[in-house]
## 1
Amino acid sequence: MKKLALFYLLFMGIHQMWSQEIKIDSSAVQIDSLDQDYKKRGLKDIFEGKPGRAALYSVVLPGAGQAYNRKWWKVPIALGVEGYFISQIVRKRRAYRKLNFRWHQSLIYDVSTLNYEIPYTSSSQIKEDRDDARQEMEYSWVYWGLARIIVTFEAFVNRHLLDFDVSEDLSFKFNLESSNPNFGSVVGLGLTINLSQP
């Protein structure tokens, strides 16, 4: 019953909400120039400014974006993630090359005469293992790329957050109002954001 009442108050009473009117001088807005500036932006504009520089450093050298942000404890994490995925690529590539060599040998020689750790009965079994190893190797490249993007994105966002204003002058609070002199008794939810400088 409480949920139904809350649903009614929040969603059914929306038409009774009121707000402050803001008048905007339409002659001061230049939409054409904003559209032209937006169209001129390209991929290289992402790397402008301090956040862009952190992302660029992180793309060029793993952990360099975190070092630029002076988050020294994140540098070994970024290097460790990079090293782990590169070691996976190397390991999976070796496994693929080994199975590829065995498969080529099985096409030339009889499989029963070849001495392997895993007893294969036909070249199709070796081919299946080789194809699985190739798929794992390709997936390891994808995982490395995703990890690289995440580390770069972390450096980019972290630099934005370092420049973000978190002073006590900013306020954000919710108000619950229970009446309005113009409409009688109404329940509403208000949001107050104070962005003025003292």
## 2
Amino acid sequence: MTTTSAKAVDIDNYDLAILAALADDADINSVQLSKIVHLSRTAVARRIASLRERGILSNARYDVAYDKLGFAIRAFVSITAPPDVDSWEFLDKLLAKPEVLEASAVLGEALLVVEIIAVDTAHLHNFLTWVHDIGYSETRVILRKNRSPIDFRTRLKMVDEIRANPDPRLVADS
């Protein structure tokens, strides 16, 4: 049986079990994974390959503790560029900066929100000065990151519940 939220991407309960196990532990080996989902290692490998091909699953990444490597500052920087700036070119320039971990195009006053790392406040200042040569920024230094304890399956159930019971205040009249 496929859940409502999974119908849009055509995945079944085996795929959901694989995704849930990988969301909990990206380091899980194929033997452990096959035992959890009750499929052979070959079937699990085929399903993971299919999930990757369909863009549902991307390559696993480790969370790097940049602070332990000498980057004392981690921050979110909201960036607004003037209308005469080519935003795609600016994004390319940002992504080429070694300080930038990730960049997201967003709705709202800012054009982009980037997550950056810096060795110290002087390094952060140099990066922000570079940004200000192109546009305006607002910075929020991350003091501590916390991962939500909510698991993958709970999040999928939430999507199903919202789709099954939409808030009537937000449903457009036909």
## 3
Amino acid sequence: MVRSIFASLVIIFVSASYSLAAGDTVTYEKDIKKILGEKCMCCHGAGSPLMEEFDKNKDGFKKKITGPRFDTYSNLMVVVNGSDAGALMRRLDDGENTKDGMPGNMFQNLGCSAEERAANLGKIKKWVGSWNLKKRKELAEDELKAITAPER
């Protein structure tokens, strides 16, 4: 009887620990989509060009203050671990990972205060899994695989 009670308590403890750990997982649907919706969609929303179109006329789109489209998970993944891997990280970095200490050109848009920017960046870094400022062609296969960025 004591063994079965002990075994039950162990199972409950392990299950509770797993649930807490799973609840800490940052996902696109649960966390990142909201941040992007509040902070990025005015320039990267559904009316923005897909990356292929943006690449053909970067200067023209930049003059219109329009960036590539990040309105869906698959569109965002282009700049996370797709053809333009690392671009999101380079643009949102706070300068802690750069040689010159300068933040990325979109870091300011992560919030109205230093605290909000830090909190949003922290969530995005946790979601990405491996914060790497390298360009796609510079990333080793293991570095690319370390970028997790779960959708759900």
